[in-house]
Amino acid sequence: GLAFALAASAIAALMLMELATLRSSDPVVYQRVLWMAHVPMPVLFLSLIVYIHVLSGCGRRWLALLAIAVRLWTTAINFLGAAPNIHLTELRSLRQVEFLGNTVSVIGDATPNPWYLLTAVANLLLVAYVLDVLVTLRRRRASVGVQRVCWVILAFYAFAVGWGTLVTQGLVHGPFVSSGLWVIVVVVMAH
After folding, report:
1. Helices (H), 141-181
2. Are strands 88-91 and 110-112 parallel, antiparallel or unpaired?
3. Distance separating alpha carbons of residues 96 and 114, to the nearest angstrom
4. Per-residue confidence of the chain (191 residues) as pLDDT tens digits?
5. DSSP string, 170-188
């Protein structure tokens, strides 16, 4: 129950932060919001691992702990070493784009932070852990419902991380909007 509540709270906080980036007109404020997002992000990350572990009763603990350790390391780098944040070393401008009928701010001219690749490692470790759980559940012929929850978490997590990486690396000029999709994950987790 606690892992679910923390995940839902982290998603709500991320939604508010994404909304702040959409409405921002100042690159400094935008960067600050990205910096602050590393409070709810590791909470969501840890909550998902704990939720999946408790729900499934399986998975390699060392893989889960390694994923958590790397994610916490990225959080420490964000707050202590990566100026101004682990996403970008510099954000020189924002762009205005149309999104769902509204004009919103997205990353314009920016330099991706090389430390951001460490977040990709943490995310891949989480994906590996969930896949390990799914393989184990399949071998045990466990409940299809538990497997479905894991697949939904995996799919939405992969999309959110993939989209965020494309935006951060400047490969897509779009908004950070993945947290809205996490509401579906919360609904699935609640059942």
Report:
1. 144-168
2. antiparallel
3. 25
4. 899 899 999 999 999 998 998 999 999 998 889 889 889 999 999 999 999 999 888 889 999 999 999 999 999 988 887 678 888 888 999 999 998 888 999 988 998 888 888 998 999 999 999 999 999 998 988 778 888 888 888 888 888 888 888 888 888 888 887 777 788 888 888 87
5. TSS-----GGGGHHHHHHH
96 close to 103: Cβ distance less than 8 angstroms: yes
List of residues 6+ apart from 133 with CB closer than 8 A: 52, 53, 56, 58, 59, 150
Which residues, at least 6 apart from 47, have a Cβ–Cβ distance to it below 8 Å?
3, 4, 6, 7, 10
Query: What pLDDT score was predicted for residue 132?
Result: 95
Q: Report the alpha-carbon angle 31-32-34, nearest 5.
A: 65
Residue 124 burial (CB < 10 Å; 0-12/13-18/19+)?
A: middle
- Helix, strand, or coil here: 92? coil
Nearest in space to 34 (alpha carbons), one of 125, 117, 112, 96: 112
Q: List the structure tokens of 71.
A: 């994610």
Please give the model's pTM, rounded to 2 decimal places: 0.85
Angle at 84 between CA 80 and CA 88, to 5 degrees: 120
